[in-house]
Design a protein that fits this description.
Blueprint lengths: L6 H12 L6 H9 L5 H16 L2 E11 L28 H13 L4 E6 L6 H17 L3 E5 L7 H8 L3 E3 L18 H13 L3 E3 L2 E3 L5 H14 L3 E6 L16 H14 L4 E4 L3 H4 L4 H4 L5 E3 L11 H10 L3 E2 L5
Parallel strand pairs: 1-2, 1-9, 1-10, 2-3, 3-4, 4-5, 6-7, 7-8, 8-9
Length: 332
């Protein structure tokens, strides 16, 4: 298939997505290989799909780094991993009151979803109970949706989180199955898929996404989108690698802004009805083109990430307002 150039052809992909049909590999590659002068017609087509399912609303999520820098995993992108020499804060799981304070801050930022994230391969039973205790009080006192990201869950742990009222569980695939061994060796791609399936079995909404910029090919990017469509992830955070000094991927270059936009359009076409979130690294990789990302994506993280700084919350609020979009409060 020749590289698409006409607006009508991009619109045909949008219509295909709206009809419930999946893009072919050839069509997916055409999106990623398109010329930069096609970006406005491409994003217009992606917006047709985004608007159909989400209108002009934007969901906001806020992360709290609930346990930092004590991870035994060797993930090459992460400043908290055991192989990282990056200077990061190191602490055990935050106490209940600190987690509650984080929830109050999420509300102040107009975030509908509060994400409790803990570094590590998976939670101990004691850590899980600490999270469960905080979640119960948040659910009783605040109109927030709660997402937990605690790693690989043991038998019985998904059930405990669901019973406590966790709405969503995040466990990213991160990269393609073929590229996975080059990124981490301390767990497998299949273990991540199994965890997502486990949380689905207990009624929690599955959140799973990717990190772009870790040596994957364009074909692998399309395959990642296929994998998340097959997994039926409700929420798909698209991270763009923010290469941190002291990590194995410290010398990886940034994803060009135009390429990042094409990736977002691709995921909107392949997973048309799902929440597509512009996640970690958006400020570094999209830079001044961040507003265009919301023509494909319908969700943002606001504030800081796990170990890197995010954009000022007021700047995100202004960006949404200037686009003529609106924040969707209390949205999962």
């Amino acid at each position: 298939m020749e590289t698409m150039s006409a607006d009508m052809e991009w619109q045909s992909l949008a219509q295909k997505a709206l009809n419930g049909e999946c893009l072919t590999l050839e069509e997916g590659l055409a999106v990623l290989d398109s010329g930069n002068d096609e970006i406005l017609p491409l994003m217009h087509a992606a917006f047709k799909v985004r608007k159909h399912f989400y209108g002009k609303k934007v969901k906001l999520n806020m992360i709290i780094n609930a346990k930092s820098g004590l991870c035994p995993e060797d993930c090459g992108y992460c400043s908290q991993s055991i192989v990282s020499t990056a200077a990061v804060n190191k602490y055990t799981l935050l106490d209940k009151e600190t987690l509650l304070d984080g929830a109050r801050e999420a509300m102040a930022r107009q975030a509908g979803t509060y994400c409790i994230v803990a570094a590590g391969k998976g939670p101990t039973d004691k850590e899980l109970e600490q999270v469960v205790d905080a979640v119960r009080e948040i659910r009783e006192t605040m109109p927030l949706k709660i997402c937990a990201c605690l790693g690989i869950l043991k038998d019985g742990q998904a059930e405990r989180l669901a019973e406590a009222g966790v709405h969503r569980y995040n466990h990213n695939l991160n990269t393609s199955k073929a590229n996975y061994p080059s990124i981490t060796t301390t767990h497998t791609y299949d273990q991540r898929v199994e965890t997502v399936e486990k949380v689905k079995a207990y009624g929690m909404s599955p959140c799973s996404g990717v990190i772009i910029g870790m040596g994957e090919t364009n074909q692998e990017i399309v395959e990642m989108a296929y994998a998340l469509r097959e997994l039926d992830a409700d929420s798909i955070p698209i991270n763009f690698l923010n290469a941190i000094q002291g990590t194995p991927l410290e010398n990886a270059g940034r994803t060009p802004s135009m390429k990042a936009l094409k990736v977002l359009a691709l995921f909107r076409f392949i997973c048309p009805s799902k929440e597509i979130r512009v996640a970690g690294g958006r400020e570094v990789n999209l830079r001044t083109l961040q507003p265009l990302s919301l023509y494909a994506a319908n969700s943002l993280f606001v504030g800081d990430y796990l170990t890197t700084a995010g954009q000022e919350v007021s700047a995100d609020h202004h960006m949404i307002e200037d686009l003529g979009f609106e924040i969707e409060l209390n949205a999962l």
